Amino acid sequence: MRVVFCGTSEFGIATFLRLLSLPDYKIVGVITQPDRPRGRGLAAGESPVKQLARQSGLDLFQPEKIRSPQARDWLTAKAPDVVVLIAYGQIIPAALLTLPRLGWINLHASLLPKYRGAAPIAWAIANGETLTGITTMHIDAGMDTGALFLQSEMEISPHETAPELSARMAEAGAPLVTETLEGLERGTLRGQPQDLSKATYAPLLKREDGRISWALTAQQICNRCRGFDPWPGTFAEFRGSRLRLWGRPSPKERAPADTSAPGTLRQVGSVLVAACGESTWLEITELQPEARKRMTVAEFLAGARLAPSERLA
What we know:
Helix content: 25-40%
Strand order of the largest sheet: 5-2-1-6-7-8-9
Number of strands: 15
Radius of gyration: 23 Å
Largest sheet: 7 strands, mixed
Order of helices and strands: EHEEEHEHEHEHEEHHEEEEEEH
C-alpha cells in the first residue's frame, strides 16, 4: 500500500515508525508543517515528524498552506493509496480528500464524537474525565465529523498529566491505524456515521485558559493542572505578578478548619494551601514565579514571607 504520512507532533511518531517497519506499507512521502520558532531562543526548529522523515530518507513536503496548488500537484504525483494524518495542524481542503484511493485516515485522541477539535487530551483531563480513548476515522470537509472506523477505550488515571496520557495514546494508536488500513484494503471495514447529538468540542488552548478561577473546587483546579501541562499551565496573580503553580486536593485532616475567601493562602506547618470553592483547599506542591525557575514550596516560602490571609487572584 502506497502511503503518504501527514503529521507534525510527537503524537504521530509511533504510527509513523510502525508503518516504516511493516513490509505491506511503503511511505512514498511525508507532509509536515514548516519549521517554526522553538525553545527560548526561538530558532527555527524541525518537527518530530520532519526529523524522522529525514533520518529515513523520505521525500518531505512542508507547504505553508496545504490548500495551495503546489500541494495538490505534489500529492497527485505521489499517487498514494491512502494518506494517514495524525496531529498535522491544518484543515485539509475538500479538493485533496478524494485524491487517494482510500481517502485520508486520521487517528484522533478521543472517543468521537466526544471532544472533537484540537485539544481533546487536555480538555478531557481538565474536565475530570476518567475514561477516554482513541478513534480512527475518515477525514471529510468538517472538523472531526467523518465516519468512524475503530475505537479503543482507555482509562485516565487520577494523577495522569496530558503528556503522559498522550504518550500512552500514541502507542496504542499505532496498531489501531494499521488494523484500520488492513480492513479498508480487504473491504471488511465500513465507516459508521457519528451521532451528532453526542458531539462535544475541545478547542485549541489559549494562554488565558490556564488562569485559575478560585471559585472552582480543589479537584477541578487539580484537573486543570494536569490537563494544561505543559502549556498553558495553571497560574494566578501574586503581588501583581504571574505565578504558575502545581497542586493537589488537600486531605480534610490537613486542611484549615475555617472557611476563607477563595484564593486565600495559608501556611500549615511546611505545607502551603489555597482556599478553593465549596470549602475545599488546594495543597500547592510547586511554584514558578514569573521569569524565575520552578521551585519547591519551602524555597518559595523562604523568600515570600507571607502576610496573614494573603490571597492569590
